Amino acid sequence: MKRIVTLGMLLLVAMTAALAQPADDWYRGKTIKDIRFEGLTVVSSTDLEGIIKEFKGKAFSDELYDSLLARVYGLDYFAEIQPEAIPGDAAYGTLIVLFKVKERPAVASVTVSGNQGLRSSEILEAASIKPKTIFNESRIRLDEIAIRQLYQRKGYSDIQVSASFSRRSDGSVDISYSVEEGFQNIVERIEFQGVSAFSAAALKGDISLKEKALFQSGEFSEAKLANSISSLELYYKKRGYIDAKVTDVQRTADMADGRTRKLSLSFIVAEGSRYNYGGMSFQGNTLYSSEELSKQIRQRVGAVLNYQRLMEDQARAADLYYDNGYIFNAFDLVPSRDEERGAISYVLQIREGPQALIERVVFRGNVKTKEPVLRREIPIRDGDIFSKAKIMEGLRNLSNLQYFSALNPEYEQGSVEPYVVLV
Asked: Domain locations in the chain?
């Protein structure tokens, strides 16, 4: 890629004969009035606005310029970028940064071949590359993975996907995905061995793998199998069988025809014994009394032990700390078994840490939505005590805007303890 990135290029300033020659570095310290692109054909200026908006209105500096340039190159939209500095007014009091660009090739068409089990439209929907977008060769490999995963979810464990592209005379690109589907795996029968506590019908209803039926496709995938194993074990643990485990899954296959493989699955289960809940006590807690922590525990002593409720109780006790800024704590749940009574009691061991403060709140990934719009939805500010409850409230507010496909809060260590940066 041709990069013309030196600050010297910024000295290509539009001048008129009537104006006196300004100093070579006239643009330093000047407010950036606007950032413009010349040469856009496929890329929309709207797509670029989210990248450049934070630089507008700021004073020009070498550091700021390097950051702006890195953002523009990071888009990978352009084969060439030529920056220029243009005065924003007759007095050279403000600055317009102009990028003269040459776009990378555009995608002319995307096709798929070799598919019989899945529709072409469904396959192409899984691919991120679309016609009339900028061609990026690295994304082809990602789309191969996406198409392969689509087939695997549909039961095609042997799927092979390969991609190729060709260039037209005008430089645009045609992309083609070729698939070799192999056999589709369909679950014909599900059985359980070692099971006495629950009926097969109850267990079948709780797992994601289903037998083929009138309203069930029976599609098999390794992901569904792993999920079904976890679901089975949790089903038992929610009903007192805290040690229950799926030790094996036996498979037999029948080749129904040239395109379908019928599977029979047998889950081997070690149920173990059923336990009641013996209660929870606390150690290491000084910030909150055991009585305050006990109010967060919902599971009733003497009832059948429910592992999911146990985890929820522990989370509520931890949230008492997290909602008040104590995010550096550690929690260990230690069981104590009474085999004679058939009960398990727990000790929640707590190692308390300092109270965290918010150094600053940072937003990343907001390309189109302006930061002030986001900040007004977050009920937490720089310098506030960290609060999980307030952060969750902010996430709900942001989700209600329906602007984003995903919201992922994180925190990073601040400049000094106990400050953190909320991202």
From this structure: 2-103, 107-180, 186-270, 276-351, 357-422
